[in-house]
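Subject: mismatched residue count in predicted assembly?

I count 172 residues in my input, but I want to confirm that the predicted structure covers every chain. Input:
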Amino acid sequence: MSDQIGQWETRGKTQTLFRRFNFERYAQTRDFMDALSELAQADGVHPQNINFSSTYVNVTLDPTDSGQANHLLAQRIDALYKPTGH
Amino acid sequence: MSDQIGQWETRGKTQTLFRRFNFERYAQTRDFMDALSELAQADGVHPQNINFSSTYVNVTLDPTDSGQANHLLAQRIDALYKPTGH
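Triage response: the counts match. Full output below for your records.
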């Protein structure tokens, strides 16, 4: 069973969030990965899992400590996504 | 069917190489990811797929243009791996 929350999908019994980000070129993918890394470093939190190749990044987010889907982190990651610019 | 080549495993009919790198802390994982990114940027090549979390990085390498397992890239990635240092 899966639900949509914005562009993110909840997966599994726990409130894991999943979203796929697509890019036209590796340079854009790399910029997004760099931004994700900076966010993780600044916050001391990082996604449960990141799976990426040259033109996509799949991100999975753990629930918050209270067991809710981590919408706040999802929105902050959405804000990093610039699929066509460079 | 899978074979071992050093610490890497060939997977599938094509000569894809796969290796899991384990780390004690996220800071080490991040350093390894940064080094991988620099290697990709310098060479203009990047792994087919990278899947990582706080304490591991799974790397899959495409075969070379001639269809052979990419041992050279595997060895260069091995050289970046510092599981305990920082």
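Chain B touches chain A through 16 residues (CB under 8 Å). Marking this ticket as 'not a bug'.
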